[in-house]
Design goal:
alpha+beta
Amino acid sequence: MNDLDRPRGDMWEVGLWVDSLKVNGNDLYLNYQVFNQAIVIPETIDAIRALTGIEKDAKTSINKTNNAMGILQGTPYYKTKIVSN
């Protein structure tokens, strides 16, 4: 996260470690990382906007929060070829 110029190296997104994916029959095994504040802080900001009426449209509020905090949504940091066994 420091490479993305994040203060203190914070990771606000939910990280899915692609290199850890494994498929065994109908079972998928994976590792992901969720920083405890990654969900709470952005959702709280959006809730405050909704409760105060500052922003009535959820998607607009989420986009504002994501842009203000530098949250990447749906953008992989790197691409890895996934191979199932």
